[in-house]
Write a structure and sequence with these properties.
- By secondary structure, the protein is mainly α.
- It has one domain (3-286): Hypothetical protein af1432 (Orthogonal Bundle).
- Helices cover 68% and strands 0% of the residues.
- The protein is built from 16 helices and no strands.
- It has helices at 3-12, 21-31, 37-43, 46-60, 72-97, 105-126, 131-140, 143-151, 153-166, 170-178, 182-192, 197-204, 216-231, 241-247, 251-256, 264-286.
- It binds fe (ii) ion (2 copies).
- Residues 141-142, 182, 206-207, 226, 299 line the site of one fe (ii) ion.
Length: 299
C-alpha cells in the first residue's frame, strides 16, 4: 500500500477522531522553552482538567501524607509540565484504543512515554536533532499501530498470526500485509492532523531510520528511544539510579550506534536524565504498577 492509498483509506474512515485544536496549542507550549505547567493549564478544557486530577490522585493515593488533590493548580504543581504534556498528547490515542482489552492501554502508553523521554534526553545530551520534535514524535511514534488495530482489523489479525505462527517481526509482517509499517501509517494520520513535518518524518521512519531523507536525526533518535523502551522493565528498575544503570547497561551501546562516542559524563547525564523523568512518569501513571496479560504490539 502506498502512502497515497493509506491517506485515501484513512480519509474514508468517518469515525476517525480529529486532532483537537487544543493539541496544536499543547505542542506550541512544549516547544517553547520558556513555558511552564501553568501555561498548559490555561489551554486545558474541562475534560482534560478532570483527567489530570484523576491521574494525580491515582498516582499519589496511598503515599505518605496523601491528601486528596481537588484543585487543578495543586494537581499541576504535583504533576509538572513534562507529565502534563504527556497526558494531554495521549488523550486522542486513548479514545481510539477503546476499552475492549485488545490492546493493553497502560503498556502502550508507558512504552510511548519511555520512548519520548529517552529520545529527548539523548537528543539533549548529544545536542543532536530537534529535541522537542523528537520528544513529541517519541510520544506518538506507535500511533499507527492503534490505527491498524482499530480500522484495519482484519489485517491486524493476519499480522498477529504471521508474528505468532511464522516468527515474523511485527514490522516485517506489517510490510507483508499492508506494504508499509505502522510508522508510515502513523505519519499519514499525523500529517492529516497538521503535525509539523519534523515530528511526522521521525515517526514515519522510526523502524527504518536509514530510509529517512529529511530530519534523519529525529528518526534515528526515536529509533533509539524505541529500542530502549522495549528492553526496559520500568516497574523493576526504578529503585535507585545505581540499580537502574546496572539493569540497563545495553542503553549506552544503543546510543553509540548513533555514531557518537559517549563520554563518561554524557553516560551519567543520559542515565540521570532518563531515570529522573521516568520516576515521575511511574508515580503518575502507574501508581501500584500492576501488570496485565493483555496483548501488546511489540513495536
Ligand atoms: Fe514502532
Ligand atoms: Fe514502539
Amino acid at each position: 500500500m502506498e502512502r497515497d492509498d493509506i491517506l485515501k483509506r484513512l480519509r474514508k474512515i468517518d469515525v476517525l477522531p480529529t486532532f483537537p485544536a487544543v493539541m496544536a496549542e499543547v505542542i506550541g507550549v512544549i516547544e517553547d522553552p520558556m513555558s511552564s505547567a501553568a501555561d498548559l493549564a490555561k489551554i486545558m478544557d474541562p475534560s482534560m482538567a478532570g483527567e489530570v486530577l484523576r491521574l494525580a490522585n491515582t498516582a499519589y493515593y496511598g503515599t505518605r501524607n496523601f491528601r486528596r488533590i481537588t484543585s487543578i493548580e495543586h494537581a499541576i504543581a504535583i504533576v509538572g509540565l513534562e507529565q502534563l504534556s504527556q497526558i494531554i498528547l495521549h488523550m486522542p490515542f486513548l479514545s481510539m484504543m477503546g476499552g475492549d482489552g485488545g490492546l493493553d492501554r497502560e503498556k502502550f502508553i508507558r512504552h510511548s512515554m519511555i520512548c519520548g523521554i529517552v529520545s529527548k534526553v539523548v537528543s539533549h545530551t548529544l545536542r543532536t536533532g530537534d529535541e522537542h520534535a523528537v520528544y513529541i514524535g517519541g510520544l506518538m511514534h506507535d500511533i499507527g499501530a492503534i490505527i491498524i488495530y482499530r480500522y484495519f482489523h482484519d489485517e491486524w489479525k493476519t499480522i498477529g498470526n504471521l508474528v505468532k505462527r511464522e516468527g515474523y517481526t511485527w514490522e516485517r509482517a506489517e510490510e507483508e500485509v499492508l506494504s508499509c509499517d505502522h510508522g508510515m501509517i502513523g505519519a499519514c494520520l499525523l500529517t492529516m492532523w497538521n503535525i509539523p513535518q519534523q515530528v511526522t518524518n521521525g515517526v514515519m521512519h522510526h523502524h527504518c531510520p536509514q530510509k529517512a531523507v529529511e530530519n534523519t536525526w529525529n528518526a534515528r533518535l526515536i529509533d533509539t528511544g524505541n529500542r530502549f523502551a522495549k528492553i526496559i522493565d520500568l516497574s523493576d528498575n526504578l529503585a535507585s539510579l545505581d540499580e537502574f544503570i546496572n539493569n540497563n547497561k545495553d542503553f549506552v551501546p544503543i546510543v553509540e550506534e548513533l555514531g557518537f562516542d559517549v563520554s563518561l559524563t554524557q553516560e551519567l547525564d543520559l542515565f540521570d536524565g532518563v531515570f529522573s523523568l521516568m520516576k515521575n512518569v511511574k508515580g503518575l501513571l502507574f501508581g501500584a504498577g500492576e501488570d496485565t496479560d493483555d496483548q501488546g504490539t511489540g513495536c
